[in-house]
Backbone:
């Protein structure tokens, strides 16, 4: 018999975009969610490893799991009675059936494509309603309202005046296009979510469980903790490292920020500035290869290029972004005289690497396989398997009596794994699965091994929780893609951008930037990128901007939206940690990321920054010379913008100095005659003037003789 009342679990946020609370809910409701989470993760691993069902069925079951867990977990954490929780789970179960429908009637749906039955229309309609409602429950109203407006336009746009009208579509056409096929809910975004994204979330979760966060933090502290303003530099570097394995900027804030924000405050940084540093660095993690917040995989599928092409284009701008944040905190520390940490408070970076070097192996293997041309699905599967092997192996040898036996175990395991690669780097996944299974059995009978197995099981369930917001965003954004592909409305906006670009490319870029930030207000990065890339990126490409650069342009400003008030999701996540107003944090984050806002503009005018060959300097300097020149110019421009934002170099800058510095930076961005030369000359003059104004070093009094 169901209990009538049960204790209400308090949730601090008005939605779950920042993640769910700890655990899976009360009592056996939580146990059920935990088991379903494990089943979801196990299904995704099996699909990644063996690909045993059609792609359309995989997408359907993936969406079904997303709806089931979304409704179930929201009910577990917010419902006041068990009857309300039951209603949530039943609704989620209906959604799971709607997703499973793609597999149950896979052949029939193909045969009657374009001629749906009444049941098809009912299932498709219910699926759409549940996707919209589940997204609202997870992320609030912003994204569902935007997608809902697309549905309204789709259904009634024929009554609008030209050029906004379309030919008109019936209800069954809209439902069929959305809920069946690959241009609606089951489009490219959900395909990527069902394959690459979930796998890389798992990969990151297992690395975190293995202690990768602690390794990143210790190395960052050891390298930069003792420098001027060291704690903030630690935050930048640790968040950058974390970005290589994490797919969420907000998750980075919550994870790394728990340590770095209080540390910065303790060493004298203002609360808003400390939280702004963490928000800026954590959001930058989404542009840091190899994961890049999972957008890299969607971009590669959209453009039809290899994943490595996207990573190569993103690498230099990502490094420049973190250099920008590092430079900002260095100047802020100099402006306010903030010092580093004491030597006894700083861990030894080399010792941390020596003790935990094996944690780097899965990430290194992943990057190597990606650049060797293996698919992200295969590389992610192998990286995950290697991570699990290291975690289980470490727990097994912990119970061995002597050091010699531990060495024997690791050498033997290395030889077994090495034998799989004797014919090259391509390995049958069945042999890898057999090794992992053998380690699982060994862990079950060794001291400490069972606890490690429980931790791995927890990682599977937690990964399913982490995948919900990203997955639901990928599903609902299919509404916009479906509407645009059927009505062709994207050409209207594209023609505006092209028309504006014929007058001024710079104004077209400004328009695209504002659109990205506006659409990204309160919406996760992935749907923001998809929307803006569909609307504006083709238009920018038509104006001569390289296609990858135009997509990166949309992507970068989608990320900047999470730093820009009034919503600034990253600032909202940092606010409770810093105990500061989110708006203040958002404005500080914008100031810290000021240089990051201009990197995409630099890449448009100097495509070599993103490893593109159609750079105007390539005929003069050659390809790599053009890359070096674009990088150096960007570094100088970023340094100048940092000086403007902070108002300090060797000493505090006057208003006139900041204005002149800003002009020098703009000259370096400009594309008119002698713009670069003017920028360099003015920058050198400011540098020399600041150097002359620098305060004299304090004299050390001589020791008095006895």
Residues:
């Amino acid at each position: 018999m169901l209990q009538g009342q049960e204790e209400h679990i308090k949730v601090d946020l008005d939605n779950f975009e920042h993640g769910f609370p700890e655990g899976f809910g009360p009592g056996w409701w939580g146990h059920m969610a935990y088991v379903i989470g494990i089943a979801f993760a196990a299904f995704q691993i099996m699909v990644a490893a063996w690909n045993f069902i059609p792609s359309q069925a995989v997408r359907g079951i993936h969406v079904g799991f997303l709806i089931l867990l979304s409704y179930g977990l929201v009910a577990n954490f917010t419902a006041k009675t068990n009857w309300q929780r039951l209603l949530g789970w039943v609704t989620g179960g209906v959604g799971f059936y709607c997703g499973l429908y793609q597999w149950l009637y896979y052949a029939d749906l193909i045969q009657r494509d374009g001629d749906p039955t009444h049941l098809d229309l009912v299932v498709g309609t219910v699926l759409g309603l549940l996707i919209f409602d589940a997204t609202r429950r997870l992320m609030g109203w912003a994204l569902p309202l935007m997608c809902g407006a697309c549905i309204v336009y789709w259904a009634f746009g024929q009554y609008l005046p030209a050029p906004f009208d379309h030919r008109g579509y019936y209800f069954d056409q809209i439902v069929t296009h959305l809920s069946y096929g690959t241009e609606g809910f089951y489009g490219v975004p959900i395909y990527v979510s069902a394959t690459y994204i979930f796998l890389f979330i798992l990969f990151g979760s297992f690395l975190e469980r293995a202690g990768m966060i602690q390794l990143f933090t210790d190395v960052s502290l050891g390298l930069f903790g003792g420098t001027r303003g060291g704690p903030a530099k630690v935050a930048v570097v640790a968040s950058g490292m974390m970005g290589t394995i994490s797919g969420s900027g907000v998750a980075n804030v919550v994870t790394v920020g728990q340590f770095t924000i209080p540390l910065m405050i303790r060493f004298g940084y203002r609360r808003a500035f400390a939280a702004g540093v963490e928000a800026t660095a954590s959001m930058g993690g989404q542009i840091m290869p190899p994961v890049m917040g999972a957008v890299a995989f969607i971009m590669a599928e959209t453009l039809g290029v290899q994943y490595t092409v996207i990573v190569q284009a993103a690498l230099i701008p990502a490094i420049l972004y973190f250099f920008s944040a590092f430079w900002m905190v260095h100047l802020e520390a100099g402006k306010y005289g903030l010092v580093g940490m004491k030597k006894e408070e700083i861990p030894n970076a080399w010792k941390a690497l020596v003790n935990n070097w094996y944690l780097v192996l899965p990430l290194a293997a992943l990057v190597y396989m990606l650049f060797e041309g293996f698919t992200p699905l295969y590389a992610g599967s192998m990286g995950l398997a290697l991570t699990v092997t290291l975690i289980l192996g470490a727990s097994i040898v912990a119970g061995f009596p002597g050091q010699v036996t531990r060495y024997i175990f690791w050498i033997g395991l290395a030889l077994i794994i090495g034998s799989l690669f004797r014919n090259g780097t391509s390995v049958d996944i069945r042999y890898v699965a057999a090794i992992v299974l053998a380690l699982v059995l060994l862990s079950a009978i060794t001291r400490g091994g069972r606890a490690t197995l429980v931790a791995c099981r927890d990682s599977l369930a937690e990964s399913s929780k982490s995948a919900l917001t990203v997955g639901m965003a990928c599903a609902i954004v299919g509404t916009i893609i479906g509407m645009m592909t059927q009505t062709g409305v994207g050409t209207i906006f594209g023609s505006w951008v092209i028309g504006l670009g014929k007058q001024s490319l710079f104004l077209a870029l400004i328009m695209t930037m504002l659109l990205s930030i506006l659409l990204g207000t309160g919406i996760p990065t992935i749907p923001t990128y998809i929307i803006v890339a569909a609307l504006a990126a083709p238009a920018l490409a038509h104006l001569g901007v390289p296609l990858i650069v135009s997509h990166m342009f949309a992507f970068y400003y989608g990320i900047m939206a999470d730093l820009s008030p009034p919503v600034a999701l990253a600032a909202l996540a940092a606010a409770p940690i810093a105990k500061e107003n989110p708006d203040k944090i958002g404005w500080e984050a914008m100031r810290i990321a000021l240089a990051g806002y201009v990197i995409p503009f630099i890449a448009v005018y100097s495509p070599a920054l993103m490893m593109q060959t159609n750079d105007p300097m390539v005929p003069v300097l050659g390809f790599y010379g053009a890359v070096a020149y674009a990088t150096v110019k960007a570094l100088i421009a970023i340094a100048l913008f940092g000086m403007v934002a902070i108002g300090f170099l060797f000493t505090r800058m006057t208003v006139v100095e900041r204005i002149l510095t800003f002009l020098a930076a703009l000259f370096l961005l400009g594309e008119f005659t002698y713009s670069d030369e003017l920028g360099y000359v003015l920058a050198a003059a400011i540098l020399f003037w600041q150097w002359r104004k620098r305060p004299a070093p304090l004299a050390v009094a001589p020791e008095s003789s006895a």
User: Anything to note?
Assistant: Confidence is low (pLDDT under 50) at residues 1-14, 699-706.
